[in-house]
Amino acid sequence: MNTNNNLYTVVYTTIIVVIVAAVLAFVSQSLKSRQDANEKAETISQMLTAGGFGNKAEFQAMGNAKVLETYGNEVEAAFTVDAAGAKVADLDIAAREVFSRSQLKAQNYKVKAGEGYALPVFIFKNGITVVPVYGAGLWGPVWGYIAFEQDGKTIHGAYFDHESETAGLGARIKDDPAFQAEFVGEQAWFGESPVFAIVKGGAPAEDGKSLVDNKIDAITGATMTSQGLDAAINAWLGAYAAYFGTAKAVEE
Amino acid sequence: MKLKETILDPIFKSNPITVLVLGICSSLAVTVTMKGALVMALSVMAVCGISSLILSTLRNTIPGRVRIIVQLVVVAMMVILVDQILKSFEATYPIDKQLSVYISLIITNCIVMGRIEAFALGNKPIPSMLDGLANGAGYGLVLLIVAFFRELLGSGTLFGIQVMPAGYVTNNLVILPPFALILLGCIVWVQRSIQKDLQEK
To answer: B163 in contact with A at a CB cutoff of 8 Å?
Structure first.
């Protein structure tokens, strides 16, 4: 048989591609629930890490079931809020309902449009509030969780992750504990612009210690990732401004 | 070629990394920890072995002009399958996250396409599969040797378990990719001094 025939070539490649597509679709569907469970535990462990309930490696060593259990023990309330800061709906704590990355991505379009969003807020029993941020880094999405103290503006901790930032440079938003530690003790200035800034050339410091303000140092050699993360944090915290604004008013 | 040579040659005598100098990029990137290197080695073995088997079975039907594209489609399928499977298990999920893009980049690993072009398209399915597996194993062996030294000296651990005495100051240079290249150079040196026929006159 002449395998160099045009018709044969076209039919052959079509069949191969259709078979491969079918195999991949089938495998993807049958493994989806397991992958979702892993992703959910990963998301929760990131939130708990930001909230200071342990570090990422500890949660990883614990296994999924223990991570979900810890979350269940620590969380007080979980709900979504809209642009006006009003509660939209409760998240199911018993089912450990959190926002997956695709949900964050969907919300990110609405955050950018400035309306119609319902963003998750997680309040823990020790008074710490954890909120997600999501945006574009250099090569792919960057996202993370920022934990606030009871005053609703001082940052208690932060954890960031990324899909494909450059190893050793942009990837340091995830891998470098020193970068995440920079957030601790700083503040988010809701209602101002920018809410938070990752600045090039050094954040204001005194005696070698960073001042308590809304600025931290960017990562050297990772300008685009730093800018992307800065934009993500500003867009998302900006979207939460009304919520944290009202939360503060209630306290006073 | 004899079956025994098909299996043993790629492990030492014609090792894909140290002799053919293929797959260097990923061997620098994924050798920080033994776990990562082991998962990567097994993934490459699986991709290499099964794609060779499939393509060798199809070899007489593949149209010559789209040969490379058909190979790519099959290899890509295998890589995606491996990635999906790693993501599905609790034990391998964190490792898959740590290896991130390097699992998907197996498709660009010259060893896979190289063995398919050089061996699988001209041999029967079973020897082809063994050739793929053996080349994956040869690649994995070097990966594990490099990772052994990098994890031991760089983090003081092996497979995540502390083995160096407490108070061992970890060597940061070892963690960085350049050290992997130095180690690879040393491995090539050792191999060439054992295997005289590799030495240039």
So the answer is: no
